[in-house]
């Protein structure tokens, strides 16, 4: 986890007249196209065969495999970050959620393309950053009355996947994860902690919404980057593994 999405602010106030006649566009269309996206991530080809085996079972099995295996250095990272506390005064033992969200995205891209030549894992255990110079970046405020899972499902259209950066309730930091919106429901993948939230399951949805969002009267920022298509899910597997939840406006 990390305290903020790092960004560089540039003041163009002195160049208003000039800017009106000249368009400068150096931004990337997608977060995965930005410079340095794969920094801190390595390929671990010995995991690729099992990744493919899980994908042959179902996309859900493949996603569970990605979540469980993309952050192999978590325990080592916790020790390193604990030792670094005296130097940087950051109490968080787990700091590499941004790198984990990138590794998950790369593996989801492989799943969508049915390309299992390799498997991506996180090498870096320190804090990372998400670029702000991305055209499809969405930033918005989250209020106390907002339900985080519902907000994300509304923002990410069905059939798409995204990297999300959401506030943690009762904490002063946010957390990077991955979101998949399928036509029958949504999934959140927390690669840092090896957790998958199936948001059509009432228990998972409750756990996710109790942890993420805001419990104060002050709005908190949320950012998401749509990265591509959602994996294809077999309808039988979805119905078997996901509990169908009634729409919120029909619930008592």
Structure summarized in a few sentences:
The chain has nine helices and eight strands. The protein is α+β, with helices and mostly antiparallel strands and 252 residues long.
Description:
This protein has helices spanning 16-21, 48-57, 59-69, 74-83, 85-88, 97-113, 148-155, 202-211, 235-241, and strands at residues 41-43, 120-122, 137-142, 160-167, 174-182, 185-190, 195-198, 220-229. With 252 residues, the chain is an alpha+beta fold. A hairpin with a 6-residue loop joins strand 4 and strand 5 (174-182). Helix 2 runs antiparallel to helix 3 and helix 3 (59-69) runs antiparallel to helix 6 (97-113). The longest helix is centred in the middle third of the chain and has 17 residues, at 97-113. It is globular and about 50 Å long. The model is unreliable at 1-25 and 241-252 (pLDDT under 50).
Task: Tell me the radius of gyration.
Answer: 19 Å
Mean model confidence by pLDDT: 81
SS content category: alpha+beta
What would you call the shape? Answer: globular
* Approximate helicity band: 25-40%
Number of E-state strands: 8
């Amino acid at each position: 986890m990390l305290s903020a999405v790092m960004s560089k602010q540039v003041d163009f106030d002195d160049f208003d007249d000039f800017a009106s006649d000249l368009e400068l566009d150096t931004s990337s269309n997608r977060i995965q196209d930005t410079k340095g996206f794969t920094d801190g991530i390595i390929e671990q080809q010995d995991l690729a065969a099992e990744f493919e085996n899980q994908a042959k079972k179902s996309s859900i099995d493949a996603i569970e495999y990605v979540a469980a295996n993309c952050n192999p250095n978590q325990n080592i990272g916790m020790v390193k970050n604990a030792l670094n506390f005296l130097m940087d005064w950051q109490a968080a033992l787990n700091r590499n959620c941004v790198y984990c969200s990138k590794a998950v995205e790369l593996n989801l891209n492989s799943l969508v393309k049915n390309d299992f030549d390799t498997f991506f894992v996180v090498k870096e255990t320190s804090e990372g950053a998400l670029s702000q110079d991305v055209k499809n970046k969405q930033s918005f405020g989250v209020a106390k009355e907002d339900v985080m899972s519902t907000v994300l499902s509304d923002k990410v259209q069905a059939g798409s996947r995204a990297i999300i950066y959401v506030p943690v309730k009762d904490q002063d930091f946010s957390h990077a994860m991955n979101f998949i919106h399928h036509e029958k429901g949504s999934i959140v993948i927390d690669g840092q902690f090896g957790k998958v939230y199936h948001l059509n399951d009432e228990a998972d949805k409750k756990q996710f919404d109790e942890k993420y969002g805001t419990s104060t009267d002050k709005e908190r920022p949320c950012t998401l980057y749509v990265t591509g298509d959602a994996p294809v899910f077999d309808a039988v597997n979805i119905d078997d593994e996901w509990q169908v939840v009634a729409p919120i406006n029909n619930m008592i």
